[in-house]
Design brief:
Blueprint: H1 2-9, H2 23-28, E1 39-42, H3 48-59, E2 63-68, H4 71-84, E3 90-94, H5 100-112, E4 119-122, H6 140-167, E5 171-176, H7 191-195, H8 202-226, E6 231-237, H9 244-248, H10 255-262, H11 268-271, H12 273-280, E7 291-293, E8 296-298, H13 307-325
Parallel strand pairs: 1-2, 1-4, 2-3, 4-5, 5-6, 6-7
Antiparallel strand pairs: 7-8
Helix pairs in contact: 5-6, 6-8, 8-13
Length: 330
């Protein structure tokens, strides 16, 4: 209740920021401390909070790599960003996150460019009311929101570790998730059922994929700390933002409820603030395995904090990746 009131009032938390803070505001305060020549990959950057994240980071001098399924839309965004920030360097590469082969191809193409990699923002997400399957015969929401990002992270991790060791600048991985992860009950979180559900529910599938994103963070943070790698990974809940995903969700709530709820939705700039804060804030040097909301560390569900569940999911995911791609993802 206390957190809800803080959110509605827009009160600042310990970080000095709150639900009303925008991406511009949170980065302006420490813009002079942003290291030069950073490179960030941002998925889902052609619209919504991903596009705003790309715009703000580019404005701070970060080279932006945009993996996009629609290169025309990506080119339009590049033009908009460079109109505001003429010196911005934007790299566009094609990818379909629901396809494991496409993600692998993107990673190979990116690595061939010889660029450094400091920041990886796994932001893309879809919501599907109807049961659909990817080319790998995996439920589309889970394939896109979780598995695609898992492979992306696995295949780019060593480049991030290498960049951090070479530059002395800590690498940061950010999984954009949702508070809706807390709706998932333990008995409904079954890996094989999520890959090929018998009784599909769009909201449940979306929530399960977002829980998987957090469990990925927990296990990756443990592994990175164990090897003393200078790369952190954290989860971010952007808030309920006025984006295409929200419009898609109107199928399970009435228009009247949506109208009332929409008055409390964040703008894209407010929604991108936590991602930008976690990506660049010097206050978060060394912070890993955490869950953030409204630019402050927050609490996730007990299931999301279950270390054994995180390790089990990681092993199951690795096995699927090995089987589908014919080789380990990393």
């Amino acid at each position: 209740m206390k957190e809800t009131l803080r959110y509605l009032a827009g009160l600042a938390g310990p970080s000095g920021y709150g639900s009303n803070s925008t991406a511009e505001q949170v980065t302006e305060d420490f813009s002079c401390m942003v290291p030069p020549h950073l490179t960030a990959i941002i998925t889902g950057a052609t619209s919504g909070i991903g596009a705003e994240t790309a715009r703000v980071l580019a404005k701070k001098g970060v080279r932006i790599v945009i993996p996009a399924r629609d290169l025309r839309r990506a080119a339009e965004l590049k033009k908009e960003i460079q109109k505001e920030s003429p010196q911005a360097e934007i790299v566009l590469l094609e990818v379909d996150l629901s396809s494991l082969t496409s993600v692998k191809r993107f990673c190979t193409e990116f690595l061939s460019l010889g660029l450094s990699l400091n920041i990886l923002i796994n932001n893309a997400g879809i919501f599907s009311q109807n049961l659909e399957f990817s080319e790998d015969k995996i439920e589309m929401t889970y394939a896109t929101n979780y598995l695609g990002h898992f492979v992306l992270t696995e295949m780019l991790l060593e480049k991030m570790v290498e960049t951090a060791a070479k530059t002395g600048i800590q690498g940061r991985i950010i999984n954009v998730t949702s508070v809706i992860h807390s709706w998932v009950k333990r008995d409904s979180f079954r890996f094989n059922q999520m890959l090929n559900p018998k009784n599909y529910n769009g909201t449940r599938a979306y929530a399960q994929s977002k829980l998987a994103n957090i469990l990925h963070v927990k296990e990756m943070a443990r592994q990175l700390q164990a090897r003393n790698a200078r790369v952190t990974i954290n989860a971010v809940h952007p808030g309920i933002v006025k984006t295409g995903i929200i419009r898609a969700h109107k199928g399970f709530i009435t228009d009247s409820i949506f109208f009332v709820a929409s008055k409390f939705l964040k703008s894209s700039s407010q929604g991108a603030s936590t991602t930008c804060y976690v990506a660049l804030s010097p206050q978060l040097e060394g912070v890993t395995g955490k869950y953030f909301a409204d630019c402050n560390e927050s609490s996730c569900s007990s299931l999301a904090n279950d270390e054994s569940e995180a390790q089990k999911l990681f092993k199951q995911t690795r096995a699927v990746i090995y089987k589908r791609l014919g080789q380990p993802a990393a």
